[in-house]
Amino acid sequence: QLPDGGLQLTLYQYKTCPFCSKVRAFLDYHGLPYEIVEVNPIMRKEIKFSAYRKVPILLANAGSPLQLNDSSVIISAIKTYLISKRKSLEEIVSFYPPMKSVSEKGKETLEYGNKYWLMLDEKETKRIYPVKEVRVEEMKWRKWADDWLVHLISPNVYRTPREALASFDYIVREGKFGTLEGFFAKYMGALAMFIISKRLKKRHNLQDNVRQDLYEAVNEWVKAVGKHRLFMGGSQPNLADL
Amino acid sequence: QLPDGGLQLTLYQYKTCPFCSKVRAFLDYHGLPYEIVEVNPIMRKEIKFSAYRKVPILLANAGSPLQLNDSSVIISAIKTYLISKRKSLEEIVSFYPPMKSVSEKGKETLEYGNKYWLMLDEKETKRIYPVKEVRVEEMKWRKWADDWLVHLISPNVYRTPREALASFDYIVREGKFGTLEGFFAKYMGALAMFIISKRLKKRHNLQDNVRQDLYEAVNEWVKAVGKHRLFMGGSQPNLADL
Fold first, then answer.
1. Alpha-carbon gap, residue A75 to A83, rounded angstroms
2. Helices H, strands E: what count in chain A?
3. Chain A contact present for B126, CB below 8 A
């Protein structure tokens, strides 16, 4: 795994987190080499250097080192950079500024401006999106995946005590846990997530049988792609597919 | 009030609504003529034609008729159109697609993609934003005005029963109320909004004395503009100022 095109990448992740998996799918599809730093989910000392407390974080070095936060910003920024190499990554990232806003419940949330939008000029746009509508469609489905699809994962993965335990067995095996930590995480984590999932189900207005929501979401996606193309992006996957 | 540059505009509004006022400030500053349709806030029959149930709505006719929703989308789309007349307004609007998302509380909300971003090519960008940082700054402060500044208005305007009554006296005078409707709206509305304001105060985590939040917001703005420029936009107001 060596740098390519001057782009040196390090991904801070939990292997089993959906947002991290999305970033890996994107990087792998584009054949970009990157180093992985698996973060310990309890102590998180690997990301202590960062004021941003979540994963994924991508450290990108394209001349000067740069920290990218938020899975969709990472993907939009790197994709823009790959299309238009004469813009600096630093400049590109500045078009996705963090913007605080206060939610309905008075909670502060951080959002990134334009995060599903590639920062292309007209020539690049015509090359990447010969059919204009696809660009807007891609944006909508990327948002759908971040805002809706992911919310179906936890309730489905911790649906029953047995499934919760199986999931945590996998998470502990794949994740970076200490020995004792792993033992506790498996049983306490499975129990906690089984309970929390019920609350998530309610918060996101899911059906009693959460499998149903998942089936419906998948059907919605398949229907949106339609019969006449292989991927949302046509014959090749676009960012909504990845 | 006659069409100009082929752009025929009709604004559906409540005169006293902050988002409508923002759109008027924008249109007036740019010297764009527009017709106003004052909407009756009880029956709202003037906007029955629209599936979008809120104001402001701008009907724009630049060749073909087009309905623009959301005050910030209206401003971004028309501004982009003024800068780049060779793009059709229809095409520009397609870059601000409505996107459903489900809030923390399971409530469906409608957001518009890229809504604080002008859809400019590189040449236009250089002309409008000779200093790059100003573009991102403008975006942030536009969002701040929509998400934070407006939330300070109601609690401040209905802070005490006397102020609530004075506000509704003004609203009823300027708005499009029936005679009987107006009478009831004034007293019932003032009472209701006095009570609702307390809830809003709590929801948005405001200080007990909401005047204080307003002063702080204004100070924050003044400080961000700084001593060396007249407006956020420099010597001329930009969209954050308007």
1. 12
2. 10, 6
3. no
Distance CA B34, CA B74 (A): 13
Contact A163, A157 (CB under 8 A): yes
Tell whether B117 lies on the interface with A, counting CB pairs under 8 A. Answer: yes
CA dihedral A77, A81, A83, A84 (to 10 degrees): 130
Report all structural domains of chain B as residue ranges with CATH numbers, in order of start: 8-119 (3.40.30.10), 129-242 (1.20.1050.10)
Count of Cβ atoms closer than 10 Å to residue B149 Cβ: 17
Indicate the SS3 state at residue A49.
Answer: coil
pLDDT tens figures, B29-49: 999 999 999 999 988 999 999
Residues 6+ apart with CB under 8 A from A9: A3, A27, A32, A33, A34, A35, A58, A59, A60, A61
Q: Which amino acid is at A101?
A: S
- How is residue A213 written in tokens? 């929501």
Q: Where are the beta strands (DSSP E) in chain A?
A: 8-13, 35-38, 57-62, 64-69, 98-102, 108-112
B198 Cβ under 8 Å from any chain A Cβ: no
How far apart CA A228 and CA A237 sit, in angstroms, is 14
pLDDT in tens, B71-129: 999 999 999 999 987 889 999 999 999 988 776 666 778 889 999 999 998 899 999 99
Q: Are A55 and A14 in contact (CB under 8 A)?
A: yes
């394209």: which residue's tokens?
A62
What distance in Å separates the CA atoms of residue A195 and residue A193, rounded to the nearest whole number? 5
Mutate: best of A91, A105, A131, partner B, most B CBs <10 A: A105
Q: Is the complex ipTM higher than 0.85?
A: no
Asked whether the beta carbons of A196 and A204 are under 8 A apart, the reply is: no
How many Cβ pairs closer than 8 A exist between chain A and B?
79
